[in-house]
Amino acid sequence: MKRIVLTSIKNQLSTFALIMIAFSGCEPAEKSEAAIPLERSDFQTEIDGKQTDLFFLQNEEGIMTAITNYGGRIVSLMVPDRHGNYDDVVLGFDTIEGYLNANEIYFGALIGRFGNRIAGGEFTLDGQTYTLATNNGPNHLHGGPGGFHNVVWDAEQLDDQHLKLTYISEDGDEGYPGRLYVQVLYSLTKENELRIDYTAYTNQKTVINLTNHAFFNLAGAAGGSINDHELMLHAEQFTPVDSTLIPTGKIVSVEGTPFDFREPEAIGARVNQSHEQLEYGLGYDHNFVLSKETDGSLEMAAKVYEPQSGRTMEIATTEPAIQFYGGNFLDGSDIGKKGEPYEYRTAFCLEPQHYPDSPNQPGFPSTVLEPGELYHTISLYTFYSE
Fold this sequence. Notes:
The protein is mainly beta.
């Protein structure tokens, strides 16, 4: 995480404003929504007294995305294959009711205050223990039931390529200390990059770990198994977990294990090998430590290639790690786009992040945010075909 030390809340607000000054006063242009088969009205309702909506971004090259302010979800992401044919590469639903009634509650969502797991739903900060919901067996997951995936964000579409979402998480929200001011900027660049800037500050010492939980299938949202997708992870180490998927505290080499994706490898090539870590996660659901030249710099983290379509996605991030999840808990109970069920291992997630359970692991990079500091991380998803 990148932290900029500020002298006062007033300075924090000024810095927050400066991030957006380049876009102030821009008005979104009128454009066709026909390329994304979604109706804006199907996402317009009221949740907890706040209005939900659907927002469309499109760049000059023709990449399109749709995002709802309910959970800040990426609802659709249209990307061409090697022949110029477009398909939607993220799993999700055609209406907001689909998200409200889904068994998998994280499709495309912003995750916070703390992405991934915290052991036992507890952590200690300056001698005080904070108790969180245990919503994943004995552990706390993705900010709890009322996490950022389950709230309505304030939204402002700045122009055709930029959507700003903001949210204030009050002191004590889901058990976390401090009033946290959060801004997420979605940008669609002319280089076919979907860029996500996460910015936050607090009035009280707290912990934070923000990410996005898009479920990808580069063959299309109804494209079947992702086991033939070829994955490269710029990671020489990963953090093994116990049977509840909490890190043991060790950081181990991927050398000689099914977790070695330093060279491109089909996701399914080794997923069914006999290995304790694969048994714990029912496949891949692990944190990989990125091999970075400079801490906090925007560097390559992952590359995924789908051989039939030629679609390729690269991810760069300022974060020190990335969670790779292979869709092991999808079970066909959610009926998604094109009326297709989302079956076992028909999607993968790559979530840039700090390490899971960092508040309880002194050997992991810190996720503490102090008053007077500005939290700012970037994740960059680049799409092209080969």
